[in-house]
Design goal:
Helix content of chain A: 25-40%
Radius of gyration of chain A: 22 Å
Largest interface: B-C, 84 and 82 residues
Chains: A alpha/beta, B mainly alpha, C mainly alpha
CATH topology of chain C: MetI-like fold
Strand order of the largest sheet of chain C: 1-2
Largest sheet of chain A: 10 strands, mixed
Number of strands of chain C: 2
Shape of chain A: elongated
Largest sheet of chain C: 2 strands, antiparallel
Number of strands of chain A: 12
Structural class of chain A: alpha/beta
Oligomer: heterotrimer
């Protein structure tokens, strides 16, 4: 019996569709979506959680703070991640802070500048100050690096540093903290901003008005470029989502976050 | 039996319409998402606007259109001579030890994913350009350089086909008349294969305009009108690629609208290339 | 004289092309090969991708490619059969060819936008293997169609005539004479499509998501090898792992292409 290969090839996809529709959304588990700044930490926490709770599935997705909040609202995600506070129109949602993160302004390690006033930083990023000489550095044009529009990190930077001014259109735009760090680490005349937790020996975080960006200074409120990492829920969390939240707020998880450079919300954890 | 054959033919016809169906779906959805935004802020503000600041509701894509063409133009500037040279090499100077290396090299170049190209450009080319030519290194020049190699396989394959399709009498006749090998190539064969070569260039152009991932990594993505090849820039594709993950509402629609522009440009280029290459296949 | 100058330029061009290819491969493989050991392929990414391997991305890539082939191959082969066996050059074939040629030129980011708005949102498949695979199927369609057409074209008409003279119907001729003989060519086209799918990134990010977790159903989001490489390289989480993922990616793609080339050579030798 010669089974016609063409027909069977065609039936296969049909079967697949039927099968998949049959197990619609049978992916048990929860989706956590939103800010790409929070994303790697959520992934870390999810990994830890899943190793302790066999059979659970936590899918972490990027998309940005606004998209994450929207996903939580529509139910597309169980938990939305945000790296900024909720705005008025989003206030019906239930937000829980899981950590605090600071934004560090970074320069290349070869750059002699280690301290800038907030106003200077604002003028640099708006393009008013174009040369390092103007702030006491070498004679070289400043290369600006910023995040893309829609990024929670950029929004926080805009809010805390730029205020009413716009970031110059001349700035290089990179789509992740790591990419910003990469550019600044290889270009001696570059300046950018990234999550404090991602600062490493490849770049130098500068002091703002004499205040060093450290966890201690964030805690005592001296370093002001701080933003919240939030888990956003449509209503009070239940089931797996609640279990994950409880885990994230527990001392072992908070210690994990602290090790990664975030400021934990449980006060005692950070001092180990 | 007859009926079964007829049914099969009808089913096959339906299957064959899949490509046109997909094309229609793509066109429909891209337009459905993007057109409202263009109408909302007005075509002039969109196509000719010089500022792209979504947070302020400014969606001017003119700098992006210009940048796309700059990068592509640069890629063609390097890619056409390179491509033609390699084609001539493959057609006229085989077999030689280098030719046996060139063919697999081209196949590999065609197979390498664009993210690898971008990564290489970022690690190797960007510092070189920054240190020796100035500027931030993440620039149109870097983009053009990498793109020219990415479109090489396209240009070469189709040009080679055109050259090979020429009647052998062209070459034999020219040589018989006393022309040198090079004169034959340059003055007889290439002009004769002209439409195929131009088609390959246009297809290469389409490929270049459509490249996204590698460009995001090495262009710098500054939202400004470029004034030099060493400037950072943002093309239509990278504009979509870099902000799509985050965009909502008007911003997202604006990105789809950018997609519409891209779509039109590519369609125009493709139709041109197709008509050119079909003309020679008579 | 011009001949020698021209010859020199052309040789330089050929040399530089080979040189660039060698440079690119050398860069990735030099740093990446040391990272590749058996565990790398058998472990999933751990600790945000700093540790472990790339197993879940390999599985994701294979699943995505499988869906793409399952839908794209029958549609493509069917279209080619219709074009070459059932119709003459007329209005229908012109429309179909026009559709195919246009589809071939559309950049992957547009496919990504389409896949996102159609599969992820409109059909509510979400970020999933299904969404990504179906989008990929649309992308490989033109390739499968043209390679199948080429393969069918080379089958001597005498084969078909023999079949008809023995009383075979058109469909029987196609399935028992034409297709089996054209199989190597068709397989080559499918292999080339697989190679392309593996390297695809832009469209995948927008449709299949970027979850690191091993997928559990067709509706799970997954990260493919190329997306994983891109994210690792951009986030700067671990350059070592990035190079490893990149090397694995390149090796996979090279392998597929080599098999396809071998098939082409064998097929050509078989025919002549």
């Amino acid at each position: 019996m010669y089974v016609n290969p063409k027909i069977s090839l065609w039936l296969l996809p049909l079967l697949l569709i039927l099968l998949s529709l049959g197990c619609q959304r049978s992916k048990a588990g929860i989706t956590v979506a939103g800010s790409t700044s929070v994303e790697p930490f959520s992934e870390l926490l999810a990994e830890e959680y899943m190793s302790q709770h066999a059979g659970s599935h936590i899918y972490v997705q990027g998309g940005g703070s606004t998209a994450g909040i929207e996903a939580a609202t529509t139910g597309a995600a169980n938990i939305g991640m945000s790296s900024r506070y909720l705005i008025d129109s989003e206030n019906r949602l239930h937000a829980v802070m899981i950590a605090k993160d600071a934004i560090a302004v970074i320069v290349n390690p070869k750059n002699p500048i280690g301290d800038l006033f907030l106003g200077q930083i604002r003028n640099i990023f708006s393009g008013k100050i174009k040369n390092w000489k103007e702030v006491g550095g070498a004679l070289h044009p400043i290369v600006l690096v910023t995040r893309e529009e829609g990024s929670g990190t950029r929004e926080s930077f805009q809010k805390f540093v730029m205020e009413k001014a716009d970031i110059s259109l001349e700035a290089l735009v990179q789509d992740s903290n790591g990419a910003v760090r990469q550019v600044v680490s290889s270009d001696p005349s570059a300046i950018g901003y990234i999550s404090l937790g991602l600062v490493n020996e490849e770049v130098k975080a500068i002091r703002i008005s004499g205040v060093e960006p450290t966890v201690a200074n964030i805690d005592n409120g001296q370093y002001k470029l701080v933003r919240p990492f939030l888990f956003v829920f449509k209503d009070q969390p239940t089931g797996e989502a609640k279990a994950f939240l409880d885990f994230v707020l527990s001392p072992p998880a908070q210690k994990l976050l602290s090790k990664e450079g975030l400021v934990p919300v449980l006060p005692k954890v950070g001092q180990e | 039996m007859e009926l079964k054959e007829k049914i099969i033919e009808k089913i096959l016809l339906l299957i064959a319409l899949s490509s046109i169906t997909v094309l229609t779906l793509i066109t429909f959805f891209i337009f459905e998402e993007g057109l409202p935004l263009i109408l909302k802020i007005g075509p002039k503000a969109f196509f000719l606007g010089g500022k792209w600041i979504p947070s302020k509701g400014l969606f001017g894509i003119f700098p992006m259109i210009v940048s796309s063409f700059w990068v592509t133009f640069g890629a063609l500037l390097l890619g056409i001579p390179l491509g033609l040279s390699c084609t001539i090499f493959l057609c006229e100077w085989t077999p030689s030890s280098l030719a046996t290396l060139l063919r697999p090299a081209l196949q590999l170049l065609a197979a390498i994913p664009s993210v690898i190209y971008g990564f290489w450009g970022l690690i190797v080319l960007v510092p070189l350009i920054r240190n020796y030519l100035g500027g931030p290194g993440l620039s149109i020049l870097t983009g053009s350089l990498v793109l020219s190699f990415m479109i090489l396989p396209t240009v070469i394959t189709i040009s080679e086909d055109s050259l090979k399709a020429l009647p052998p009498s062209y070459k034999a006749g020219s040589l018989a008349l006393g022309a040198t090998h090079w004169q034959t190539i340059w003055r007889v064969l290439i002009p004769a294969a002209r439409s195929g070569i131009v088609a390959s260039i246009i297809l290469g152009m389409g490929r270049a305009i459509g490249e996204t991932m590698a460009m995001i990594m090495i262009l710098g993505n500054a939202v400004k009108m470029p004034t030099s090849f060493l400037d950072s820039a943002r093309t239509l594709t990278t504009n979509i690629g870099i902000e799509m993950g985050y965009a909502t509402g008007d911003h997202r629609q604006a990105l789809f609208a950018t997609g519409i522009v891209l779509f039109f440009i590519i369609m125009a280029l493709n139709t041109l290339a197709i008509s050119l290459s079909r003309r020679r296949v008579r | 004289m011009t001949q020698s100058i021209a010859k020199f330029i052309i040789w330089m061009a050929a040399l530089s092309t080979i040189a660039v290819m060698v440079l690119i491969l050398f860069q990735i493989l030099k740093e990446g090969l040391p990272v590749l050991h058996l565990r790398f392929f058998l472990d999933s990414p751990k600790d945000m991708g700093r540790e472990g391997g790339i197993l879940s991305t390999i599985v994701g890539t294979m699943a995505l490619t499988a869906v793409a082939i399952l839908f794209g191959a029958p549609l493509g082969v069917g279209t080619a059969i219709l074009l070459k066996e059932y119709t003459r050059e007329g209005r229908t074939s012109f429309i179909i060819r026009f559709g195919t040629d246009c589809l071939a030129g559309i950049p992957s980011i547009i496919f990504g936008l389409f896949g996102f708005v159609f599969f992820v949102i409109y059909l509510n498949f979400g970020w999933s293997i299904l969404s990504g695979g179906l989008t990929l199927a649309a992308m490989i369609l033109p390739t499968v169609i043209s390679t199948t057409e080429e393969a069918i074209k080379t089958i001597p008409h005498s084969y078909r005539e023999v079949s008809y003279s023995l009383g075979g119907t058109k469909w029987q001729t196609v399935t028992r004479v034409v297709l089996p003989n054209a199989l190597p060519g068709i397989l080559t086209g499918i292999l080339l499509s697989i190679g392309r799918s593996i390297g695809e990134t832009a469209a995948i990010i927008l449709t299949a998501g970027s979850s690191l977790v091993m997928p559990t159903s067709l509706f799970s989001p997954i990260r493919t090898m190329s997306v994983h490489f891109y994210i690792l390289a951009r986030e700067g989480i671990s350059m070592k792992m990035a190079y490893g993922a990149g090397a694995a990616l390149v090796l996979f793609v090279l392998l597929i292409n080599m098999i396809a080339q071998w098939l082409i050579n064998r097929y050509i030798r078989h025919r002549t």
